[in-house]
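Interim report, section 4.2 (structural modelling).
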Amino acid sequence: MFDLDQFIADCRAALAADKSHKLVRDVVARAVSDPTAVLKGLGEPTRSVFQPLHRSHDLTIANVIWAPKMTVVPHNHHMWAVIGIYTGREDNIFWRRVPGGREGKLEAAGAKALSVRDAEPLGRNIIHSVTNPIDRLTGAIHVYGGDFFDPAHRSEWDAETLLEQPWDPQRAVARFEDANATTTKS
Ligand SMILES: [Fe+2]
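Predicted structure of the assembly:
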């Protein structure tokens, strides 16, 4: 049984005990260890959306539904995160700035494939891009150690040039809505 209010309370208690992602990761791992319960608690995904479930200055919890084959461009968070998959798949590419490169140019640094029941912590300095590689919706609980919607000092990188530009929270959320238009099948 997944109870959203209890989950939020558990994340808040974990954060109060330890400011890192460590204990929050345990809470997320416990939740997605029973993906059927999360599906019942949050509802079966029907469309791509970035749905905030809790927002405060030190903690953001969101239900993130990726459209089939959807990709988001490289971006940073400037806060730790924990990604818990409860249905589908998510491929992460990790990036780093090219040493001495201009305009924040990136190069690929690694990758990680996430599957259902995975609860992956991301450090505060990570730069990543995310793809849902499968033909159906992917659902994940994202927990961030700060206010996800605060754009302060955050960047994203152009998908083609890999050059740095400011991150815009409205644009980031709109991409999930746009993905519905391009992937909806009649
Ligand atoms: Fe991200």
